[in-house]
Amino acid sequence: MPNLTFEAHSTDYQPTQSLQELVDHHFFFLKVGPELTFRMREAVFALAHIEAQHCNPQSSELISTVNQAMNENPEHWKSYYQGDEKTIEHLKHYSYSDRIRYYWSATEIKTALQTLLTNIDNAQLPDTIISQYFSARQFGDLQGSANELIQDHIALCINRYYSACGYPH
Predict the structure, then answer these.
(1) What CA–CA distance (Å, rounded) separates 89 from 74?
(2) How far apart are CA 113 and CA 67, in angstroms?
(3) Residue 10 maps to a domain
(4) Are residues 109 and 115 in contact, defined by beta-carbon separation less than 8 angstroms?
(5) pTM confidence score
(6) What is the CATH number of the domain that holds 85?
(7) Calpha distance 119→122 (Å, rounded)
(8) What is the per-residue pLDDT across 86-121, written as a single tens digit (0 to 9) for each?
(9) How far is CA 3 from the centre of its chain?
C-alpha cells in the first residue's frame, strides 16, 4: 500500500533493526513511552548507587523513598505484578512496564531526586566512577551534570529511533 502511512503504537524495547523494518513498511509514526522512563529510572538509580558509594552529604535515600511511595500507593503497580514478594520487589524496580513512571511526580520523590542531583553535582567524581555506571559515554566525555547524565542515557533510546528513521543523531 504505497500511498498509506501507518502508526506503530507500542514500539518500546524493539531492536533498532525492527524499528527500521517498520519504517521500511510505511510505519512512519513509531510511538515509544515506557522505554523512555525505563531509561530514566536506570540513570537515576545509577546516580543513587554512585551517591551511596561516593558522596558524603546527607543521602537522598531516593530508592527507599521510591519504594515507600510505591508501597503506600500500590494502585499503579499492584494489578501488573504477580509472584512471591522477592519477584514483586524486583518487578517494581526493573519491569519493562515501568510502573515507577507514575510515581516520579510525588512530592517526596521529587524532593529526594533533587537532593540526589545536587549531591552528584557537588561531588568530585572520578571519570572511572562515571564510566562504571554510564559506559555508553565516550572516554574524554565522562563528566557532566547529573541532569546531563540522565538526558544522555535517555538519548540512547531516542537515538535508535532517529537511526531507524534514517536521521543522523
Answers:
(1) 12
(2) 13
(3) no
(4) no
(5) 0.89
(6) 1.10.400.20
(7) 5
(8) 999 999 999 999 999 999 999 999 999 999 999 999
(9) 36
